[in-house]
Amino acid sequence: MNILSHRLASNDDFDFLFDLKKAAEGDSVARIWGWDEALQFSIHQEELAAALPQIIEHDGQPIGCFLFEVHEDHCYFSRFFILPAYQGKGIGSHILKENLAIAQEMGKPVRLCYLQGNRVEVLYRAFGFEYVREDEHFVYMVREHD
């Protein structure tokens, strides 16, 4: 079938989203800070209380998530995780392209950041994101609207 869709997360997605975060970026978090399960669980609770992401579904099964926020002068793309078994299949490109089109229609740049060493940089650069700055933990990028 290969139907790709997304929907707003609900409280029922809490466990899936935490497991997804561990699967998708657990190694990067562990490399930078060390993985502290209780701390990461607390951060996860705070993130979901602040804003619910979209759940990416493949044939009705949850496989990832992203958060796309519209601000006054820009859009912010974050919490972009895809289960490892679904990475490298064009799903991330599809989701990113869809969100960039929304920002383009609004005439707003898209900002994002990701953990140092994450291979997602290749995807972001392929879609025209440019390096802004970095610190010891994160790389910050922006894609200006055309």
From TrEMBL:
<dbReference type="InterPro" id="IPR016181">
    <property type="entry name" value="Acyl_CoA_acyltransferase"/>
</dbReference>
<dbReference type="Pfam" id="PF13508">
    <property type="entry name" value="Acetyltransf_7"/>
</dbReference>
<dbReference type="InterPro" id="IPR000182">
    <property type="entry name" value="GNAT_dom"/>
</dbReference>
<feature type="domain" description="N-acetyltransferase">
    <location>
        <begin position="4"/>
        <end position="146"/>
    </location>
</feature>
<protein>
    <submittedName>
        <fullName>GNAT family N-acetyltransferase</fullName>
    </submittedName>
</protein>
